[in-house]
Amino acid sequence: MHIDVITERSAAEALRPEWDALVGEAPDGSVFLSPEWLLSWWDAYGDGLGMHLVAASEGGRLRALFPLAFRGRRLQGWSNEFTDRSGPLVAGDSREAVEAVARHLADIGRRWRSLDLRPLSEQAAPTGWTADAMGAVGIGRRVTPWMRSPIVDLPEDPAGLDGLVSRSFAATLRRKGRKAEAAGLTAEMHADAAAAADAFAVSEASWAHREGTGIASTAANRAFYTALAGAAASRGWLRIALLREPGGHPVAFEWNLLRGDAAVNLKLGYREDASGSSPGQVLRPRVMEALVAEGARTFDLLGSDEPYKMHWAARTVPHVRIRAFPPTPSGRARHVYRNGLRPAVGRVLRAVLRRADGRG
Hints:
By secondary structure, the protein is of the alpha+beta class.
């Protein structure tokens, strides 16, 4: 097993053909591990980071890719608060590649003080392989829960969509749909990057923009979604849904990706001044109808299991965080403190407070 470390954007771009092939081969390959997603992320959010993209190859074939980066002496994955999925990209039969990457991290242990990987699917085999391989080479690590994300299992026919929700919620959706139709609201689905302009316009008039979490709230967010729109459209993955008023002005959007039969909802939003017409609830059923008609069988709603998402989803996928420290004297000390002593002290304090409040 051979390890290469890529530190330049141009070298990461040159890896794209092999990278793309590995996404197609890996059981957990997804748009979130694709070069389209990750290179768009790097271009938007990579300022202040030192690229450390670890590639493990065997017999000239790429078997694993760990997108890591240095922020000072801290190592992290290519993710941030706007990223709901992350993780290593690993061929299905290549646990040995993960072990080789762990040995590499141990070998450069004096270069990093801590490692933070999140959010990783708890059910994905590479997550467990990574934690085990780190422990085998002396890297102190702790795996903790991060979030549970709702997944909608879609029917084969749009007629089955009503069966996903309760009877009362289905009746609410029908009532709101009739009201929207009477008001002249129309839904559209776009696969071209030009539709991003309307999504940005809606987002700028939304509560998410005001709170700083929208797709256009920061220059970096706008750069990421602009780059992603072009990259995803070039692969045929982009699906931006818009809800328009009679005059043509957009009032709501859903930014989705569809790769194969797996759809993901990256962002949604609506103009605050249009909230009275429940544009999100009007648009979502039409989005699902279009996705099912295209052959989508799962719809990942991302984020956590908030009530408005659980109207649709019957199951959730748990995600975890791996925090690790190098096999050096200082790293072992930080591991004992951060992953051992501090959680233990916290548990004791919480128990004391429960007793003081009469709850335990």
